[in-house]
Amino acid sequence: MGFRNIIGRRLGLGLVRRRKPFSTATCDGDGNGNAKSINLYSAINQALHIALETDNRAFVFGEDVSFGGVFRCTTGLADRFGKARVFNTPLCEQGIVGFGIGLAAMGNRAIAEIQFADYIYPAFDQIVNEAAKFRYRSGNQFNCGGLTIRAPYGAVGHGGHYHSQSPEAFFCHVPGIKVVIPRSPRQAKGLLLSCIRDPNPVVFFEPKWLYRLAVEEVPEHDYMLPLSEAEVIRQGSDITLVGWGAQLSVMEQACNEAEKDGISCELIDLKTLLPWDKETVEASVRKTGRVLISHEAPVTGGFGAEISASIVERCFLRLEAPVARVCGLDTPFPLVFEPFYMPTKNKILDAIKATVNY
Amino acid sequence: MNSASCAAKISTQPFSLNPTSPASHDRPLVSPKPASLFLGSTRKLRLSSSSKLNLHRRSGTVVAVSDVVKQKKSKSTHSLLITKEEGLELYEDMILGRAFEDMCAQMYYRGKMFGFVHLYNGQEAVSTGFIKLLKQQDSVVSTYRDHVHALSKGVPARAVMSELFGKTTGCCRGQGGSMHMFSREHNLLGGFAFIGEGIPVATGAAFTSKYKREVLKEADCDHVTLAFFGDGTCNNGQFFECLNMAALWKLRIVFVVENNLWAIGMSHLRATSDPQIYKKGPAFGMPGIHVDGMDVLKVREVAKEAIGRARRGEGPTLVECETYRFRGHSLADPDELRDPAEKAHYAARDPITALKKYLIENSLASEADLKAIDKKIDEVVEDAVEFADESPVPSQSQLLENVFADPKGFGIGPDGRYRCEDPKFTEGTAHV
Predict the structure, then answer these.
(1) Which of chain B's residues have a Cβ under 8 Å away from the Cβ of A239?
(2) A158 is known as an active-site residue
């Protein structure tokens, strides 16, 4: 369980922000005004406070949210905004999301919390068949754009089968919703506010491993980060690495090690998985000629497959090596063998070398 | 609001409409169906004349079994509810559950076991009261709070402890962990981390028993399935779907609700429109019973009735056991939300203390007998820990086994060995 036991690792350092010429960001959160050093769940908490402050038709609901939630993301909301806006639901994910769709269809901002992404499957039907298709099949008379579903996802070291899953690939296959995954506290706050205010239903996966471990300077004011814009967080010239969420910190470590061997790695945070920013990734691959994708979810049918196929379509002649995917194994998320199952730094490092030396 | 409803639950006498005649709700209202239509779903639609009877049948005659028993008991003080052997068996089982869970907490804080561990302290009466009445072939489906269900069903403490430590000698070879105890030998169908997921599984298992008897003609097959779940689950769709199916097909199942009033931090009373769960049974056409889950003898009496009904083929029962967990939801739960007064109230109703008192007052056992059992169980639990400690950790190739039916798993290289055992395994993209 080695790599992630470092407490308080700062992910804010070493970020290289490359501004896109046509950026639609209202504010990049670039340190204007006060910024405090907080962790991921506090950043999300701030975002929720701001969301409820700025829109009096915003609601937060889910299992155990009123006392603050099992990860403390919703602390203080019930006290501040009242039980009519921040309330617990009974234990029924399908009901929670369906109910959220109804709220959103009537013009409210429904922020539903699913306690663990592993439990989102009963709600999958509502998300795929209702939320994603609401605007389309009503001919734009109704929409549930006000719906945002938040769920903690990903490995946590000891979660086992049902507290560690990464289901983002299932949702990336659904036209009509957006899927967003932040990598750090500053990103999380900005992205969450964008998701809440986006006029489309969004599934927002939060890397639960980073709730306490990731600490970063986060501006206290209201700011949004643009969706569907990937970010190059590390410049390089030999190989492009693409990832999201908690996996980026592992990939960054691998990049650092590869640098010692003289391999210059470019690291891209996709941020929004659906619809994803193909241009940024393609531009990077055109520069380096090699690409490696890494995610915790099992490799077969994972989102890395979509990225790989798209890149090959667009950059076939430029590629110097096959697209590499370093992902979880094709088994249920294990209990005892988590370190063996996960795409660890060493696996990524080996794949970088193999790709560069192809 | 909390304390008022607690007061209501103290006097926990389920209201009885017909105290003297435990109604069987399943006498067919139309002419007896031919033997081949065992599914019942092919029953003809009820005609209007019998629809009134139908309504009456569903109007919620709740059988107060424990009332009947209580009356019987008060009439003749000499007829006790249990014999000495039964009493000691119950005591031993509850002590085993308690000691085991306490040891789990110790081991967890020492880092020997990991993951999410949910302890059963305080609810032993439900597990012991029900499961001790089962045969080996009867099935039990549990939740994530399943250590004690496994122990009561007969899974050896060693196997459970090893499973918790993640060793190969665990009941699931270390692959399941705390929340997924399975045992084919003892017909324990798990261990479900996801609430409500076990209930349809139990329903299917109960169907098998009926199928074996009526279609495969194994005339002596009367296996019963027990499904345990909590109060939070009773707001979940799967619960209602299964109540419907079980009643529709008259399955040999007992739905046991372990109502401990809390779903992590959500009070049952604030999450449920009608907190009296037992009332949901008659809505689907089965009896619903409320029983004091802190009293193992009362639970046992109700369980006898419910399991008996199921065995005779009279259909399912919904039993709501009012119980309480002394610890937090899991070992990671600081348990700050519950009122200390509530906790103290239930601590005073500790099922083990109550049984001990009963046994001693009715001269069924002496202090020495009970102390001997305590000591024996301590040794069993210590032995389980030692065994688990010394057991081997599974080899890495076990990760790839049992994904599909082929027991070798996948990821076998051309040399016939698992690729992951090759020292150069991590090179490349780690595909297996």
Answers:
(1) none
(2) no
